[in-house]
C-alpha cells in the first residue's frame, strides 16, 4: 500500500517574523474561481462608478489679470511656467497707468512670479523661443516686444509682487498685430496682421513679409518639425501655407468660414516619413473653423503637405454647422475626421504633446477634449464662473489643461478628470491599471456604458445641443426630400467632410 | 523539451520556440503535423499533457474572426486572443513545474502533488482500513482521524468554511459549536433552546443572537451563496426564500409547488439552487424567476440526496428507489447509474464522491477519466450510529461525518485540492487578512441577476435570431404532395377477410388517407386567407382618401 495525504506545516505557509511580508500562494485553476465573469463585470461596474466619483478635474484658478485673458504661451523649457496676456490695455491708458498685461505664472503654486509691463493696448499674441529664454509679445499697439525670461531656478523663491522683467527690445511697426509664433530651432518669429511678417531677434524690421489677398491675417503657427513651414489663417476665410525658402505661398485653401487659430500636432509617423499634424482653428466670433494640417517631411528639402480641416460654425441666432473636421494633409480636398460637440464658436485649440488628443476652448463657456480621431469629445469641463474661453493649452507633460477666459482668470484642469495626483505606490498603480482594464473590457455593456458616458451639462448647453440636433435633422430631412423629388442624380450627395471647403488654390 | 532543444540546430530551435508560443489552436495543429516525426514519444506525451492543461486555462475556444469585416477590430481581437493564449500557456507551465517562487513579490506558484492511495499486489483500495492509513501517514495528518462522541444532543450536522479552516457543528437539540480545525481548538460552544420554535437565527462568532428570520418559516434546509451574500432556504411548505444578508432585503420568495423538501444544494459553478422533491424530480432555481430553470425527473421515488461537482458539469443524485445517478448537466443526461441506498452525498474538490447510509460510508472515484465512477474506499463507523451528513473538508484529504452520536473525521487520500490560492480561500488567513477580504468581497458582491445556468454568458452577444421564412407556394404544394404520397404508400394493400378488401372499400380507404394527409395544409391555407381578408377589410374600412397611405409592404403581402 502506498499512501500520501495532504499535510501542511504552519511554518511553511506563514511568515517567520512579524517584519516579513505575508506569504502568498497562487493557483490559477478556473474551477476554484466560480462565476469569474460575473465578478469581473461587477468590478467593471464599480470601476466605472469610482471613476465618476473621483472625477474632479478642476485644480485651481489663477487670478490676477484685470481684463479677459486673450492669449497664452507655454514655456518649452520649464514645465511649471506659463505666460498669459490680457486685453486690459485700453482701459488703463485712460488712467495713465503703466499696464501690466503679460504675466508669467507658476502652475504649481498658481501665483504670478514675473510681470512684463510695457504694452499700451491689448496683447494679442505671445510666444517663447525654443530655449525658453526670450518671450515675444505683440498687440494692438502696433509693437512687437522681446522680453528676457527670468531663469527657472530663481522663480520659486521670488515672492515679492513687483518683480517685473525688463524688455530687451520693442519694435514699432505699421499695423496692429493679431498673432505671433516663434520658429522651432531658429532665430525667426512670424507675426500676423495686415500681412505675415517674418522677424529676426536682432532686427528692428521684418526680414521678410508675405501677402496673399488683402484681408487681415489673424493667426500664424510654425510647423514644429519643419522649421521653415508656417500656416496662417486670414479673415477672408482662407488658410495659407508658406515656405520661408520660397518667395510665394505654397497652398491656399478657401473655406466657408474663417479660421481663428492654428496648432500643429507633434504626432509620430507610422511609416518611415515624419508626420506632423497641423491644426488650424478658425473663428470670427461667431463663425469658426478648425483645420488640421498634416505634413510629411522627407529628407529636409522636399516635402508634401497633408491637411485636415475641422470647422466649427455658429452664429448668434441660428446655427448652421458646429462640427469640426480634421484632414489628411496629403488630401486637402477632404476631411479626415469630423469632430462634433461644441454648440458655439471654438476659440482656441491645442494638441497634447502625445498627439493623441487635443483640447478646444469655446465661446459656449466650455472646454472639450477630443481624441485626434474621435468624432465626439471624450470630456467636457465647465464651471459656473467660467465665461467665454479665449485660449487653451495642454501642459508640456500632457497631464494638465490650462484655460484662459473672459472672466480674467486662468484655470488649471486635469487632462484626465479622475486621475489620482501625486506619487502612486506600485500596488496602487496596479490597482488603477486593473480597474482600467476591466472597465475597458466591459465598456460595451449598457450599464457600464451609461455610467462612463454620462456628463452633466449646464442647462444652456444642454438646450443648445438639443436645438442643434433638431436643426441638423430638419436640414437632413429637407435635403432628402429635395433629392427624392428631383431627377435621380441631379442633386449629388455631398459628404460632410467636403462641405466646408470652397476651393483649394495652389 | 530542453534536452531536445539543445540537440537541434539553432534555426530549428527558434522555430520550435515560435510554435510553442503561437495561439494554442494553431500550435496544436502544427505540432501534430510537423513535429510528430522529430519528437520521441515521451516528449510528445509531455506536449499532449501540456495541451490539455492549456485548454483548461483557455476557458473556451478562440473567437472566430472569419465573419468580421472590420480589419481594425479583427487586429485588436487577434492581439487579445494571442494574449489569452500566452497567459493560459504560462498558467499551465506553472502548474507543471514543481515549485516556483517569486522573491520580489513574495508569491509562491506552488505545485504540490495531491494525496493518493495505491494498492499493491492483491490488495484492494476499498479493503484498506483507516487504522492502516493512519499508521502510514505523518503525525499531523493522523490527527485528522478522530471520533467525537456526544450521545445526548445528536444527531449532528456540520459545515466547513470555504477555506476549510473552521467547522460549525450543530446538534438536533440546540448544541452549536465553532471549531478551529488547524489546532482543533473550540472557538465557541453554545446551547440554544429555541430550536423548537423552527425559525432561522443568525449568531455571531461570540454566540450572540443577531437576527431572527421569521419570514422564512419552518425551514428544513439552508444554503448560503457566498458570492451573492444570499441566504437561500426551503421550508416545509415548499417555499424557497432568498434573503440578502447585507441589506436584509428579501430578494426572492418562490413557491415551488412541489411540497416540502429537505434536499437542497447550491451548484458552486453557477450558484443555481437545486431542490430534490418527493416526486423524484430535481428542480433548479434562480431568485429572479418564479418558474424553475430546469425540472428533471431523476428517480422513481423521493430524492434523498444531491450533490454537485465543483466544475459544475456533474451532478449526483440518490433516491429512495435505491439508485445513485450521475448526471451530465450540459446535456441533462444520465452518465451512470449505480445501485445503492444512500442518505447523503458529497463531491470532493478533486471529484471523489462520498455516499453514506446507516453507519457505512463509501467513496466512489473516477479513475478512468471518462466519468465512470467505481468503488475507491469504504468505511464503517460504530454500529448503530446513523450518519446524517458527509462533507469533505476543502483543501484537505479529510471527510467529516455528522452522525447520531457526535461527529467523526476520516482520511480520504486524494480528495482535496493540494494548492490553495491565497486570494480565493486561505486556510492560514490572519484576522487582519480576513477583515480586508471581507471588505473586498462586499465590494465584489454579485447582484442576484447574475445567477444563471451558463455564467459565461455575461458580456457575450446574443446570437442573431433567424426569422423563420415563409415557405413559398410551390414549396408548400411540394410538401403537400410528398405527404400525400406518403399516405398512399402507408395504406396497406394486404388482402383481408372476405368483403373487407373490396376494390370500392380500398379506394375509399385510400381517399380517406389522402384527405387526412392534406387536411393540415389546407387548414393552414384557410387560416392565412382569413387573416389577410380581415386585414383587407381593415384597409377598406379606411376612408378612400387615406387608403393610399397604407404601406406598400403590408399591401403586397395581402395579395
From TrEMBL, chain A:
Pfam family, one: Sof1
Lineage of origin: Eukaryota, Viridiplantae, Streptophyta, Embryophyta, Tracheophyta
GO molecular function: zinc ion binding
Biological process per Gene Ontology, one example term: maturation of SSU-rRNA from tricistronic rRNA transcript (SSU-rRNA, 5.8S rRNA, LSU-rRNA)
The UniProt record lists the keyword Repeat: yes
InterPro entries from the UniProt entry: Quinoprotein_ADH-like_sf (IPR011047), Sof1 (IPR007287), WD40/YVTN_repeat-like_dom_sf (IPR015943), WD40_repeat_CS (IPR019775), WD40_rpt (IPR001680), WD_repeat_DCAF13/WDSOF1 (IPR051733), Znf_SWIM (IPR007527)
Ranges of biased composition (kind: Basic residues): 496-506
Localization annotation: Nucleus, Nucleolus
Primary location class: nucleus
Biological source species: Rhododendron griersonianum
GO CC entries: small-subunit processome
Region (Disordered): 477-506
Keyword annotations from UniProtKB, A to Z: Metal-binding, Nucleus, Repeat, WD repeat, Zinc, Zinc-finger
Family: Belongs to the WD repeat DCAF13/WDSOF1 family.
WD repeats: 116-149, 339-380, 382-423
Domain SWIM-type: 307-348
Protein name, entry field: DDB1- and CUL4-associated factor 13
Record bears the keyword ATP-binding: no
Automatic annotation (TrEMBL), chain B:
Localization: Nucleus, Nucleolus
Name of this chain's protein: BING4 C-terminal domain-containing protein
Claim: rRNA processing is one of the keywords in the record: yes
GO terms under biological process: maturation of SSU-rRNA from tricistronic rRNA transcript (SSU-rRNA, 5.8S rRNA, LSU-rRNA)
InterPro entries registered for this protein in UniProt: BING4_C_dom, WD40/YVTN_repeat-like_dom_sf, WD40_repeat_CS, WD40_repeat_dom_sf, WD40_rpt, WDR46/Utp7
GO CC field: 90S preribosome; small-subunit processome
Annotated keywords: Nucleus, Repeat, rRNA processing, WD repeat
Repeat (WD) residue spans along the chain: 296-337
Compositional bias of kind Basic and acidic residues: 509-541
Segments for region (Disordered): 453-541
Keyword match Nucleus: yes
Highest taxon listed in the record's lineage: Eukaryota
Residue ranges, compositional bias (Basic residues): 493-508
Principal localisation: nucleus
Residue span, BING4 C-terminal domain: 375-455
Amino acid at each position: 500500500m502506498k499512501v500520501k495525504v495532504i499535510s501542511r506545516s504552519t511554518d511553511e505557509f506563514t511568515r517567520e517574523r512579524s517584519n516579513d511580508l505575508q506569504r502568498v500562494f497562487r493557483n490559477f485553476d478556473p474551477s476554484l474561481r466560480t462565476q469569474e465573469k460575473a465578478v469581473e463585470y461587477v468590478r467593471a461596474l464599480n470601476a466605472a462608478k469610482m471613476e465618476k466619483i473621483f472625477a474632479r478635474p478642476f485644480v485651481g484658478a489663477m487670478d490676477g489679470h484685470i481684463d479677459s485673458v486673450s492669449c497664452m504661451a507655454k514655456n518649452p523649457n520649464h514645465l511649471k511656467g506659463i505666460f498669459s496676456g490680457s486685453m486690459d490695455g485700453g482701459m488703463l491708458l485712460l488712467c495713465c497707468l503703466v499696464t501690466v498685461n503679460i504675466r508669467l505664472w507658476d502652475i504649481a503654486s498658481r501665483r504670478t512670479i514675473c510681470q512684463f509691463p510695457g504694452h499700451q493696448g491689448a496683447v494679442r499674441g505671445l510666444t517663447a523661443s525654443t530655449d525658453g529664454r526670450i518671450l515675444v509679445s505683440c498687440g494692438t499697439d502696433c509693437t512687437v516686444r522681446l522680453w528676457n525670461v527670468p531663469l527657472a531656478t530663481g522663480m520659486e523663491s521670488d515672492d515679492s509682487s513687483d518683480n517685473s522683467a525688463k524688455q530687451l527690445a520693442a519694435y514699432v511697426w505699421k499695423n496692429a498685430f493679431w498673432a505671433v509664433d516663434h520658429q522651432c530651432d531658429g532665430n525667426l518669429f512670424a507675426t500676423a496682421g495686415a500681412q505675415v511678417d517674418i522677424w529676426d531677434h536682432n532686427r528692428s524690421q521684418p526680414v521678410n513679409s508675405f501677402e496673399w489677398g488683402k484681408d487681415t491675417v489673424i493667426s500664424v503657427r510654425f510647423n514644429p518639425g519643419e522649421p521653415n513651414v508656417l500656416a496662417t489663417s486670414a479673415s477672408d476665410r482662407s488658410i495659407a501655407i508658406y515656405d520661408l525658402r520660397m518667395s510665394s505661398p505654397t497652398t491656399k485653401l478657401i473655406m466657408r468660414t474663417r479660421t481663428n487659430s492654428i496648432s500643429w500636432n507633434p504626432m509620430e509617423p507610422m511609416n518611415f516619413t515624419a508626420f506632423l499634424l497641423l491644426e488650424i482653428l478658425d473663428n470670427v466670433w461667431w463663425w469658426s473653423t478648425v483645420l488640421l494640417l498634416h505634413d510629411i517631411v522627407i529628407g529636409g528639402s522636399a516635402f508634401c503637405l497633408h491637411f485636415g480641416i475641422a470647422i466649427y460654425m455658429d452664429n448668434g441666432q441660428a446655427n448652421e454647422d458646429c462640427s469640426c473636421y480634421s484632414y489628411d494633409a496629403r488630401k486637402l480636398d477632404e476631411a479626415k475626421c469630423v469632430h462634433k460637440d461644441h454648440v458655439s464658436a471654438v476659440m482656441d485649440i491645442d494638441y497634447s504633446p502625445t498627439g493623441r488628443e487635443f483640447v478646444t476652448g469655446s465661446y459656449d463657456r466650455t472646454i472639450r477634449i477630443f481624441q485626434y480621431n474621435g468624432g465626439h469629445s471624450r470630456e467636457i469641463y465647465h464651471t459656473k464662473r467660467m465665461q467665454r474661453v479665449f485660449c487653451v493649452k495642454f501642459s508640456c507633460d500632457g497631464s494638465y489643461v490650462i484655460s484662459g477666459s473672459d472672466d480674467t482668470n486662468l484655470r488649471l484642469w486635469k487632462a484626465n478628470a479622475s486621475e489620482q495626483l501625486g506619487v502612486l505606490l506600485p500596488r496602487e498603480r496596479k490597482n488603477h491599471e486593473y480597474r482600467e482594464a476591466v472597465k475597458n473590457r466591459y465598456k460595451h455593456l449598457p450599464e457600464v456604458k451609461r455610467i462612463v458616458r454620462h456628463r452633466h451639462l449646464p442647462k444652456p448647453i444642454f438646450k443648445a445641443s438639443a436645438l442643434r440636433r433638431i436643426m441638423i435633422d430638419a436640414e437632413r430631412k429637407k435635403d432628402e426630400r429635395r433629392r427624392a423629388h428631383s431627377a435621380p442624380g441631379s442633386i449629388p450627395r455631398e459628404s460632410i467632410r467636403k462641405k466646408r471647403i470652397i476651393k483649394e488654390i495652389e | 523539451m530542453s534536452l531536445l532543444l539543445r540537440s537541434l540546430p539553432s534555426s530549428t530551435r527558434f522555430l520550435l520556440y515560435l510554435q510553442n508560443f503561437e495561439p494554442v489552436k494553431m500550435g496544436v495543429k502544427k505540432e501534430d503535423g510537423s513535429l510528430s516525426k522529430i519528437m520521441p514519444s515521451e516528449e510528445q506525451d509531455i506536449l499532449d499533457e501540456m495541451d490539455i492543461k492549456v485548454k483548461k486555462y483557455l476557458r473556451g475556444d478562440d473567437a472566430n474572426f472569419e465573419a468580421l469585416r472590420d480589419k481594425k477590430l479583427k487586429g485588436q481581437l487577434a492581439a487579445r486572443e494571442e494574449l489569452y493564449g500566452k497567459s493560459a500557456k504560462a498558467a499551465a507551465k506553472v502548474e507543471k513545474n514543481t515549485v516556483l517562487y517569486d522573491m520580489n513579490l513574495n508569491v509562491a506558484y506552488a505545485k504540490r502533488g495531491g494525496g493518493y492511495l495505491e494498492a499493491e499486489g492483491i490488495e484492494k483500495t476499498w479493503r484498506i482500513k483507516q487504522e492502516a492509513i493512519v499508521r502510514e501517514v505523518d503525525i499531523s495528518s493522523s490527527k485528522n482521524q478522530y471520533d467525537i462522541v456526544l450521545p445526548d444532543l445528536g444527531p449532528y450536522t456540520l459545515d466547513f468554511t470555504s477555506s476549510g479552516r473552521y467547522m460549525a457543528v450543530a446538534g438536533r437539540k440546540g448544541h452549536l459549536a465553532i471549531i478551529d480545525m488547524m489546532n482543533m481548538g473550540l472557538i465557541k460552544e453554545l446551547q440554544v433552546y429555541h430550536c423548537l420554535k423552527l425559525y432561522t437565527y443568525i449568531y455571531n462568532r461570540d454566540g450572540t443572537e443577531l437576527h431572527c428570520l421569521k419570514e422564512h418559516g419552518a425551514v428544513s434546509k439552508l444554503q448560503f451563496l457566498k458570492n451573492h451574500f444570499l441566504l437561500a432556504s426551503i421550508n416545509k411548505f415548499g417555499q424557497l426564500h432568498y434573503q440578502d444578508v447585507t441589506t436584509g432585503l428579501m430578494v426572492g420568495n418562490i413557491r415551488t409547488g412541489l411540497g416540502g423538501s429537505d434536499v437542497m444544494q447550491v451548484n458552486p459553478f453557477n450558484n443555481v439552487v437545486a431542490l430534490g422533491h418527493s416526486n423524484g424530480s430535481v428542480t433548479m432555481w434562480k431568485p429572479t424567476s418564479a418558474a424553475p430553470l430546469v425540472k428533471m425527473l431523476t428517480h422513481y421515488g423521493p430524492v434523498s440526496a444531491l450533490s454537485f461537482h465543483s466544475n459544475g458539469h456533474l451532478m449526483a443524485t440518490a433516491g429512495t428507489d435505491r439508485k445513485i445517478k450521475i448526471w451530465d448537466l450540459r446535456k441533462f443526461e444520465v452518465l451512470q447509474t449505480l445501485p445503492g441506498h444512500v442518505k447523503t452525498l458529497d463531491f470532493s474538490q478533486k471529484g471523489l464522491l462520498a455516499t453514506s447510509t446507516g453507519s457505512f460510508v463509501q467513496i466512489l472515484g473516477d479513475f478512468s477519466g471518462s466519468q465512470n465512477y467505481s468503488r475507491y474506499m469504504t468505511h464503517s463507523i460504530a454500529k448503530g450510529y446513523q450518519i446524517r451528513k458527509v462533507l469533505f473538508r476543502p483543501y484537505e484529504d479529510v471527510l467529516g461525518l455528522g452522525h447520531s452520536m457526535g461527529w467523526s473525521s476520516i482520511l480520504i487520500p486524494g480528495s482535496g485540492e493540494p494548492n490553495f490560492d491565497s486570494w480565493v480561500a486561505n486556510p492560514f488567513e490572519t484576522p487582519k487578512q480576513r477583515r480586508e477580504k471581507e471588505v473586498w468581497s462586499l465590494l465584489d458582491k454579485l447582484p442576484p441577476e447574475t445567477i444563471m445556468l451558463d455564467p459565461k454568458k455575461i458580456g457575450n452577444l446574443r446570437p442573431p435570431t433567424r426569422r423563420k421564412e415563409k415557405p413559398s407556394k410551390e414549396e408548400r404544394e411540394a410538401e403537400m404532395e410528398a405527404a400525400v404520397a406518403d399516405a398512399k404508400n402507408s395504406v396497406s394493400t394486404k388482402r383481408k377477410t372476405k368483403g373487407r378488401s373490396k376494390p370500392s372499400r380500398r379506394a375509399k380507404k385510400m381517399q380517406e388517407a389522402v384527405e387526412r394527409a392534406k387536411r393540415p395544409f389546407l387548414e393552414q391555407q384557410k387560416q392565412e386567407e382569413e387573416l389577410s381578408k380581415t386585414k383587407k377589410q381593415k384597409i377598406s374600412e379606411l376612408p378612400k382618401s387615406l387608403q393610399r397611405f397604407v404601406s406598400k409592404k403590408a399591401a403586397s403581402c395581402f395579395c
